[in-house]
Amino acid sequence: MFLRGAEEAVILPSIWPYLQMFHADYWNLGLVLSAYYTVGIASAILVGRLADRNMNLRFSGIVWNLAEIVGNTIYSLHFNMYLPLLGRMVAGFGEGYASVIWAELARITTEEERTRYFTLVKVSLFLGVVSGPALNIFLKEFDFYIGNWHIDFRTSPGFFMALMWILATGIMFVFVYDLSHEMRKERGYEPVSDGPSEEHFSKQEQLQEGYTIESLSEDKGDDMTSSPFIYEDVIKTEEIDDNSIFPDDSKKSSSGSFRDAVRDIFTKFHVIVVVYSTFFIIVLHSSLQAIILLVAERMLHWSEDNVTFLFTIWSVEITIFGIILLILSRKISDRLLILISAIFGCLASVGVIPLAFSPPTSNRAYYSLLVTIALDGIASAVINAVGRSSISKHINPDNQGMVQAILTVLNRLASITGPLIGSSLFTHKKIFAIILSGSQILELVLVILAFNKFKVNLSKS
User: Fold this and answer.
1) Which of 72, 158, 175, 312 has a Cα-to-Cα distance from 440 of 20 to 30 A?
2) What keyword terms does UniProt attach to this protein (predicted)?
3) Distance CA 150, CA 76 (A)
């Protein structure tokens, strides 16, 4: 995940200068930018389905890393203007492996510790993004040839990331293994979930055995059937089957199909609320990323260095709050974190309103932008830490891979939607502010309504 963040930080700033080598039009930039995420969506669905079929973690990681290696290598080849596009498409296929990581974490962690580990993975992603400016300074010094292949500041990001993915693949081959697969081999293994404990199953088996004895006794005309004790056990067996063994939030299914995963997500109000919150916080964050570039240039007259510094501070803020959540995740419930994210997301979106009504170069425009970014950083850090983790605690463990893939697809759609909204509505900033504020206020209302539903009965494992 660190490398994915670093790749985003070094590739994105270099794309437009790179395409200018070929005298490309503006639409080529949009095509290359969207290619990675578009293919990543398809890859996430495929990998998520395979993950639910007990796909080998290390082998699949090596295969999908090869896509990153090949894709970044193709991206750095400057012999044709379509090679950067093809390279980002191939590299985007490797994006799907994130679904396997999330699914594996959901399987091997208990509800108490899951948010902490999900936060750790997200923090590693943010650290990669934060490292971007330093890596860009380093990569600007590249200027050498391999035959006719010129490695300079435009092609060096792809070349460098290909080398880093080769290194990561070697490390993965040595140190990564399938912990969930090893756990399945252990005697008495049960999936980590909200499902029944061994104690419940033992009780059920005992009561069902009593029911069997009663049935046999009826066939033989045994007086034992008149015992009120056994009759009570029969009733209790039925009650345990309906309520204790498979609670409403964790009905078990053996299929783990795409339809089951969709049903698992979109038939529970509180899960829908978390999905909505995550989606629109990402839309808020990514739309601000797009509009900041235009605000900085046309309203504040900032230089490129000022914009780079602002993005770096923004990433550092998100990373710091991610680390804080990593430390405090065991002491703060998921539902409280979701509420905090909704509150700060709402405040950040409302902060866009004074920005929309601010004249260029005014202090109000300057401070509105900074406050909005700061509030959004908190909301993004919190929902990134708790969103996937919270959802994983309310779904069938058999569907973890496909559910995480669906969440990845939705996140990527949000990442594509945000910049489109931000850039297209820059000249209509009031409409932009109304859309963001409306979506975030609705999110806060939904979170409050579903607050009690977010509570999870922690596993005893």
Assistant:
1) 312
2) Membrane, Transmembrane, Transmembrane helix
3) 9
